[in-house]
């Protein structure tokens, strides 16, 4: 009888469920760097999310206040290290705006070509790593094959493979060799075939579409409210590209190109697949720009003559401030430089696109499955070097 | 609309405390009083002619006499942008530890401002009143001080690890001293990269010592 009682006692009162705190990162391959997200989990469903950034903070803005205008160029490379040329461009344009000088024509066109090449290289990483996030390892190797060609092409004028320090205030650092433009055009032809290959590998893959369509939907209003820019904004259906709308380099005005926006092809407008597909189509638009630019590069100086004299002494822009924004692969990179007439700025603020794009994550994750959270982080395509600066 | 039209729109809106437009600057800016910042921003966002949908950047700059906040807002549909500035004068004896300028937060107008304001608090010690989540963002919570302030004292150690400062800031250098001679041996016209030395001529990591496999080593039993 006693034994029977033992089994009838309700033993479930010490079994209960509660929200689980889950720590995603900072050392996690799918957070694309040292991003840490504190997640509240109800089973597989995310109930709360809080980003914790700053693990890669290197005081870039403080360094900028302690070095000269030219010396800070290489530091900007290390912010968004996947698109170094675009960062240098934004910094150089900001300093040029302060100084009131303009780069010569040849330098402008060369800047366009190297920036668009770098944009393709950056989007290739986004494409490859997103495949890995979704469980497809092969596209990554294909992406790196083409990225290798781009790095070899950019190495020839700049001498570097990743952090180029090629674009400097007043022009570019070195001239290109005679065969460079021919080789770039050859790469363009080759890349078009490769691009079609990527689409068969990943874009139209049924599993990939199943993992990304209808996931992480960012509406147009939400994107604008959070200040999202770049492919993330365009995927939400906003046709906004600084290259087209605020041409910070006039050659962009003379080039014909489309601004791809999300259309909700496989799901809802502004989902992960749209963001991915906008990046893929942007690569083709970059190829289009490069093709046109290669035929238009004029002969002439590659650095402003008056600037060459100024390089010998530290640059001292007149007192004032300038905000310069450029379309990076990840969105709008802005440099706000405040000069008081000295050798170094008293404030050099970088408005990093990844920083702003990441801020939407806290609002986007709740309600998703954990596996979809990884898909969302990957689709935002953040670079932590730029988030933390 | 250009900045001039935006400014006249803003002054006509009934929002008080809107100052003059400085057109001599590279980016013309409007000075706004801190008290009317939120009202001005809300007007700029909601007015059908202004329609500033996006807050691009919030920056604090420490000047000798004031903390200056610059807000860059832009409209995507109308293709215009505007810079607004708020100035918080430095009180007598206001230094790193005692002075935390206070500005109303605009995180309620644009969510984008949330992280920007947190960063300005973290690095420059500007307090944003009414901010929903007023924490540090880049530095750890236990960090002391705001490193982008001009009078920030560098820590001499991180935990038990001593930190040495060997870099002399640019502004402390002698400007009239002759530029240092270039140490680069590359002449004009030479290629940027030299081919690497053949492998056999490179020094070995072992320093040339070889290890005989048969010879008994010290400590071997």
Please tell me the overall pLDDT of chain B. 78
Residue share in β-strands of chain B: 15-25%
Number of domains of chain B: 1
Strand order of the largest sheet of chain B: 1-2-5-4-3
CATH class of chain A: Mainly Alpha
Q: Quick summary of this structure?
A:
The complex is a heterodimer of chains A (389) and B (221). By secondary structure, chain A is α+β, with helices and mostly antiparallel strands.
Any overview of this molecule?
The complex is a heterodimer of chains A (389) and B (221). Chain A is an alpha+beta fold. Chain A has one domain: Cytochrome-c3 Hydrogenase, chain B, CATH 1.10.645.10. Chain A has helices spanning 2-8, 60-64, 72-77, 84-99, 105-133, 138-158, 180-203, 206-212, 220-225, 231-235, 242-245, 251-254, 272-296, 305-312, 353-358, 361-364, 370-380, 384-388, and strands at residues 20-24, 36-42, 45-52, 167-168, 171-172, 320-328, 331-339, 347-351. In chain A, the strands form three sheets. In chain A, strands 1-2-3 form a three-stranded antiparallel beta sheet. In chain A, helix 4 packs antiparallel against helix 5, helix 5 (105-133) packs antiparallel against helix 17 and helix 7 packs antiparallel against helix 13 (272-296). The longest helix of chain A has 29 residues, at 105-133. Chain A is globular and about 80 Å long. The mean pLDDT of chain A is 87. Chain B has 221 residues and is an alpha/beta fold. Chain B has one domain (3-168): 2-Layer Sandwich (Beta Polymerase, domain 2). Chain B contains three helices and nine strands, in the order αββαββββαβββ. The termini of chain B are far apart. The mean pLDDT of chain B is 78.
